[in-house]
Model the fold of this input.
Amino acid sequence: MPMKNVLIIEDEREIAELLEIHLKDLECRVVKASDGLKGLQAAQKNRFDLVVLDLMLPKMDGLEVCRRLRTEKYYTPVLMLTAKSEELDKVLGLETGADDYLTKPFSVREFIARVKAIFRRTEAFAERTLQEGSAGEINRGELVIDREKRKVTLGGKKVELTPKEFDLLVLFATHPGRAYSREELLNTVWGYQFDGYDHTVNSHINRLRTKIEKDITQPRYIQTVWGVGYRFSEQEELQRR
Done:
């Protein structure tokens, strides 16, 4: 794996230093920022392969930092750290554009696993984009997916997707007709295995459907394959619907 550049935005010095040590063990170059404003400025000034972002920060909180990063031209993966365990905080982080999250306290082993998973996903996405044409758009009926800009429109209107929702949609749309099990989707899109994957995949599919389907009870794009998982409609099916 080529050397990665990682930005840690964390105001707790001990945590930041611990993460830095283990990231350097992965042969990452690490830059640290102790507040949200400095972190955002660093992320805007330089290209990073990953931003490790604490939710509760002085001067600018992690949610606002993440929002602003998602307005930048280049897409930078974000792993959000939070001391809160409420579901609302996790959902807000993901909806704002975080690629993954960890709730403090967390084990170093889990942190490293999440980091490696993000690196694998971004490398796989870059490879697929190179093979399929980085500037090309995916057109599926009224659905248009711009992989380079990570933007989606439906009938000409922009669809706001979280990073995981976007990656799921790209995977489905580039392999129409192929049925994926929930475990396959978890391994491909999330990049690791953990308990409760059925709920994780199902909830993301449901949220994705609410954003791209006119009638979620009769989905046009993402079909349920009973006993297996999900598949994306083939072009002939979209033309008939």
